[in-house]
Write a structure and sequence with these properties.
GO molecular function, one term: electron transfer activity
Shape: elongated
GO cellular component, one term: plasma membrane
Distance between the termini: 59 Å
Number of helices: 15
Strand order of the largest sheet: 1-2
Keywords: Cell inner membrane, Cell membrane, Electron transport, Heme, Hydrogen ion transport, Ion transport, Iron, Membrane, Metal-binding, Oxidoreductase, Repeat, Respiratory chain, Transmembrane, Transmembrane helix, Transport
CATH architecture of the largest domain: Orthogonal Bundle
Order of helices and strands: HEEHHHHHHEHHHHHEHHH
Helix content: 55-70%
InterPro entries: CcoP_N, CcoP_N_sf, Cyt_c-like_dom, Cyt_c-like_dom_sf, Cyt_c_oxidase_cbb3_su3, Cytochrome_c_Oxidase_Subunit
Function: C-type cytochrome. Part of the cbb3-type cytochrome c oxidase complex.
Structural class: mainly alpha
CATH superfamily of the largest domain: Cytochrome c-like domain
Largest sheet: 2 strands, antiparallel
Amino acid sequence: MSTGWTWFIVALVVSNLIGCAALLWWTSRRRPGDPAPEETSHVWDGDLTEYNKPLPRWWINLFYLTLVFGVGYLFWFGGLGGIAGYGKWSSASEHAADKALAARKLEATFRPYAGQPIDRLAQDPKALTLGRQIFANTCATCHGSTGQGAIGYPNLTDNIWHWGGDPDTILTTVLDGRQGVMPEWGTALTSMGGPDAVEYVVAYVRTLRDPSLLYNNYPAARGKDLYDGLCVACHGPAGKGNQALGAPDLTDDYWLYGNSKESLVQTISKGRQGTMPAHRDLLGETRARLAAGYVWSLSHPPAARAAQAP
């Protein structure tokens, strides 16, 4: 806070304290000419009289003590702009202390699961419960509360993994994140095959799951040549993909961004950028490991059933 604002706050606080004390002193004293407490001349119905009695002295003294307490509070805790209190208290230090206490409690809770393989954690009921809670707080925003994902966010309950589905790879994905990049091929394809080149590739990609669709399919035949010239480097000759690169398998029926013609044209012509954030620093390794164990259980129902068994 700037020096000017600090002095403004000091002046405001001091003037309020002095003003409250002066007002209290002025209104609590009796001045010459004031009527006696029983002589206000305000009488109703013959026997109802308004008195003008001052507050009891002990009550007035409590107001003074309140002002003294306020001065002491400001002296110890601060509150005068950028001037720190004598006790060096601050909301930031209070928050840091509370955070450190909570961190110690969490560390004690998660310590038994440190370093354990995620497929083993998926069979521990208590670890699975903790992992489910961490998933709900951190991962459900993108992947949904049931882990079934949405357009642009992978489904975690099936057996399709763009980067690999073994325990170590899943853990690496959660800890360090992933960056999936589908390059923009619209311009390159148009220069190679004309204005309809992207649609030709879409037609061919649809046949990868069912090669019989290639029969008497001119757009797909044109698309195969274009695919072999550009797409094969990542997705492979048969379209099986490459998990080392995060290139999806084009022969299954799962499409991260949808399988409509418009969506596929958009993916090929404009590209896609998919980011899985790293959670190592956000959650710490053990909590990320517990979340990964829960994710593992979603695609391995027997492990989940074993964890829920008494």
